[in-house]
Design a protein that fits this description.
455 residues, Nucleotidyltransferase, domain 5, Four Helix Bundle (Hemerythrin (Met), subunit A), 7-stranded mixed beta sheet, globular, 16 helices, alpha/beta, 3 domains, 7 strands
Length: 455
């Protein structure tokens, strides 16, 4: 049966005198001192799933620490597995016994199950700790938005069609090895599709690419027809071997997932290539493997394929609120949600707030004024008297400089905690990785505050 944490430990490695080791020790002390951690660990256990028989596996505390380590050092699961077997500081931090080695799959299976709501709950406990220790009072806040990429290649119509052919043919080949060639009949167009993709990417001019696109679309249509027929066969097929049951179930699940995505990619290509339509961003499919990816256009800058993220920090630099947004909403629409989230955490509205110019509106100014915000400014708004609420121009300039500091916080997140690109698959895992990075960032800052206070 899984445990929340191990009370009695075996012989542990000695402490290594190093900056990173000191930081991990402080993070461990902070986790032990956080209020309501038993509730957090119970949520982790619920996410992991508990078995009444067999080995207990990793404790909830160890899983949380593994997630923090992964984001703190921006590691892949393979790199983290090597680090936890090689680093004495990490082994001491995780409470691993002598000879205990964690595999990549073990770490992945456990950390990936922790939901984003659990990480948010842990971050709430960190805010309570910061409030209790006098590190953060929530009276002065600043907000901004940024973008985080999903793990996809640059989308083009040709690459999406090639992806559909490639994945569907791979699934049908797997199904053929389970059921047999007589029942599963299809034509493998992967090589032909790859050639068409190469020619499209290396052709000059629309007149040269157009016939290649039409041929690639015909190949995709034929592959989708074959995949639909194979799926119908698999639904009526029974196998006896346990291994074949698992393989057949996986094939059916993949075909049911990628056939609709392939049809959407084909229809999108037809609209763009044949009918010369401009497909709206909300209707675009930019990846078969990460269909939740949004198309984010930020002014005249490059297009980002990922998700827009709202970030709120306090005077201490701690991340008070981080949320993944749906689509690309205007920044001015986010102020009510930011205010509600802050009141839920601290019980009242902040005394001073600083926003980027995109948040500026008279409605937002009036809303914040009615809620009790005394000092408010929007940078780059051009009309301070209309949209800002400040006691003096000196306060306006101070808040402008204070708001600019959030750019450093965002840069810190992206450089150190892997916030620029999330490699986890699926929307739920994407959100969990974002919130895990938030927790790792706040724990790191709190640990550094404690270390600096002692020196």
């Amino acid at each position: 049966m899984r445990l929340m944490r191990k009370i009695q430990l075996a012989l542990m490695p000695v402490k290594i005198e190093f900056d990173r080791s000191d930081e991990l020790d402080e993070i461990e002390r902070i986790l032990e001192a956080l209020p309501g951690m038993r509730k957090v660990y119970r949520r982790v256990l619920a996410d992991l799933g508990e078995s009444s028989t067999g080995p207990g596996g990793l404790t909830a505390e160890q899983v949380v620490k593994l997630g923090v380590l992964r984001k703190r050092h921006d590691m892949t699961y393979r790199e983290l597995a090597h680090a936890t077997s090689d680093s004495l500081s990490m082994r001491r931090f995780l409470g691993l016994t002598l000879g205990q080695v964690l595999s990549k799959s073990c770490i992945h299976e456990n950390v990936k199950r922790v939901k984003d709501a659990t990480w948010v709950l842990l971050n709430d406990r960190l805010k309570e700790y910061a409030l209790r220790e006098g590190i953060e009072d929530g009276e002065i806040v600043r907000a901004d938005t940024t973008t985080t990429e999903t793990n996809i290649h640059f989308p083009t119509d040709a690459s999406l069609l090639n992806d559909a052919i490639r994945i569907l043919c791979r699934c049908m080949r797997e199904a053929q090895s389970v059921v047999g060639k007589k029942r599963v009949v299809y034509i493998d167009h992967r090589r032909r599709s790859k050639k068409k993709l190469y020619r499209i990417n290396n052709s000059r001019g629309e007149s040269a690419r157009h016939p290649e696109y039409l041929e690639l679309m015909r190949i995709t249509k034929k592959t989708l027809q074959d995949a639909s027929e194979v799926l119908s066969v698999l639904k009526t097929t029974l196998v006896t071997s346990a291994e074949d049951v698992v393989r057949l179930t996986r094939c059916k699940k993949e075909l049911e997932t990628y056939i609709p995505s392939g049809k959407k990619a084909l229809e999108q290509a037809r609209r763009r290539i044949v009918h010369k339509e401009k497909v709206p961003a909300v209707e675009k499919l930019v990846s078969l493997f990460e269909p939740h990816t949004d198309v984010i256009v930020k002014g005249q800058r490059d297009v980002v394929f990922g998700h827009k993220v709202s970030i709120v920090t306090g005077a201490s630099g701690l991340l008070l609120s981080v949320s993944v947004l749906d689509g690309n909403p205007a920044d001015s629409n986010l102020v009510p949600k930011i205010l509600d989230a802050h009141k839920a955490s601290f019980g009242e509205a902040p005394k001073a707030m600083a926003f980027d110019g995109g948040f500026a509106s008279t409605a937002n100014r009036d809303l914040l004024k009615d809620e009790g915000v005394k000092e408010l400014t929007f940078s780059k708004n051009g009309n301070m008297t209309l949209k800002s609420l400040v006691s003096s121009r000196a306060m306006h300039r101070w808040l402008m400089k204070f708001r600019a500091g959030i750019e450093g916080c965002i840069s810190f997140l992206k450089r150190v905690f892997g916030f620029d690109r999330i490699y986890d698959k699926g929307l739920s895992s994407f959100k969990a990785a974002v919130q895990c990075a938030t927790v790792a960032c706040n724990l790191t800052l709190l640990a550094r505050f404690r270390i600096a206070a002692r020196t």
